[in-house]
Amino acid sequence: MSTSPRSAAVRRDWGHDETGCTILHIDMDAFFASCEIARHPELKGRPVIIGTGVRSVVSAASYEARPYGVNSAMPVATAKRLCPDGVFLPVDMAYYRSVSHRIFQLMSRITDRIERTSVDEVYMNVAGALRQWERPTAIGAWIRREVERRFHVTCSVGVAGNKLVAKLASTNAKPNGMLLVPVARQAEFVQMLPLRSLPGVGPSSAKRLEQWGVTTVAQLAAMSREDLTRATGSAIHANGLYLAARGLDERRVVPYTPEKSIGSEHTFDEDTDDPACVSGLLLRCADTVASTLRRKGLLARTVTVKLRFADLSYATKSFTMERPVNTASALYPQTIGLLERMLDMSPGSVSRGIRLPRPVRLAGASVSGLSDAATTPVQASFDDLLAEEPDDRGTDGKSDHGSADRREDATVRTAKTAKRMGQAEQALDSIRERFGNGAVRLGLRDS
């Protein structure tokens, strides 16, 4: 569900010169809500809102719900107050993904130069298909027609010479439209849009630019790179805005984008400062993330914890580990450490049951810095080597070397415990594969 600013002035005929306009951006219209209406035709014409529960947020809303002021990321409780007659449905991501997969398969008949950016958005480079189709707009028209005919949902298409302008065009073609922006007019097109339309211009950036007297894209285009760098505080950000304000974009359509992160998060039924509740949820998240890593054959180096508080504000904190991992037994302790640091709690506070200083509404964990487990070299640590060492003590299990041996024994036990935990999690994967993800959960005991 797109909430990007739009301009009625740009939704017009910009000309019919399609030379060089080989990039299409296809954006499904209110996709989740449209999927539900497709399988429940009796809902057509009614305000359909995806999201249930007083603690949840709106994932999507049909266009009939928009006049009520309902939009994505809004608390469901607010949406119900604004639109009491709306039809509120739970998120069915498996269904939406299945429809998305079939739609993308349809597009792959035209070209394999397809970059999926989300479940309901895709870029296409159709340069190689023009010998058969002749015009990019002919491809866009066919996609719109076939998607609606086969799946009973609509999409909007932007046709342009680069990804930036194509996406802005599809946004301003909504709903169920197509907009062509000729290469020669892309700067003019972009400079008629609201400043917040540009990627990289959020509330904070817009406020900083406003201090420099910049409130429109046209004013942004009049700034030099040097002034933009001073205004934004970042040469990289400044260069991106300098190009965008001129309708320029150097990015290519990348048919396959490696997964950048894997995460899991959940909202509590009630705000809580109970450390056991929050740590228990982080354990579930770590288990889900680790299981996904193993299933996809990946390792992760960086773990991030995300919290949402009672006032709906967010906080995140990350930590990069020395070695990549794919087990919850390795991830979970890091999430607890990050939780304590985020809330300025002393180490070990959570395990001691000390109440959190702020009630938490949502908690989650994610990992990034992903790499292929089959090809990533992982140097064995000292603990790994200890875990492989046989126990060469006497048959009575005793040692005559005193406290030093006892300390070494504790280290060996810790290493072997970690190894056994990794093996146990692999066994859980087999059980889940056979009986479903909910068949068994990981439990870790505080050391």
From TrEMBL:
Requisite cofactors: Mg(2+)
Chain intervals for the UniProt region annotation (Disordered): 387-426
Residues where Mg(2+) binds: D27, D120
Record-annotated active site: E121
Record's cofactor remark: Binds 2 magnesium ions per subunit.
EC number: 2.7.7.7
Alphabetized UniProt keyword annotations: Cytoplasm, DNA damage, DNA repair, DNA replication, DNA-binding, DNA-directed DNA polymerase, Magnesium, Metal-binding, Mutator protein, Nucleotidyltransferase, Transferase
Pfam families, per the entry: IMS, IMS_C, IMS_HHH_1
Catalytic reactions of this protein: DNA(n) + a 2'-deoxyribonucleoside 5'-triphosphate = DNA(n+1) + diphosphate
GO cellular component: cytosol
Record-marked site positions (Substrate discrimination): F32
Subcellular location: Cytoplasm
InterPro entries named among the record's database cross-references: DNA/RNA_pol_sf, DNA_pol_Y-fam_lit_finger_sf, DNA_pol_Y-fam_little_finger, DNA_polymerase-Y, DNApol_IV, IMS_HHH_1, Rev_trsase/Diguanyl_cyclase, UmuC
Top-level taxon: Bacteria
UmuC domain segment(s): 23-202
Primary location recorded for the protein, binned into one broad class: cytoplasm
BP term (GO), one: error-prone translesion synthesis
Molecular function terms, GO-annotated: damaged DNA binding; DNA-directed DNA polymerase activity; magnesium ion binding
Ranges annotated as biased composition (Basic and acidic residues): 392-411
UniProt subunit comment: Monomer.
Protein role: Poorly processive, error-prone DNA polymerase involved in untargeted mutagenesis. Copies undamaged DNA at stalled replication forks, which arise in vivo from mismatched or misaligned primer ends. These misaligned primers can be extended by PolIV. Exhibits no 3'-5' exonuclease (proofreading) activity. May be involved in translesional synthesis, in conjunction with the beta clamp from PolIII.
HAMAP family tied to this protein: DNApol_IV
Family: Belongs to the DNA polymerase type-Y family.
Record's protein name: DNA polymerase IV
The species this protein was found in: Bifidobacterium simiarum
UniProt lineage: Bacteria, Bacillati, Actinomycetota, Actinomycetes, Bifidobacteriales
The gene coding this protein: dinB
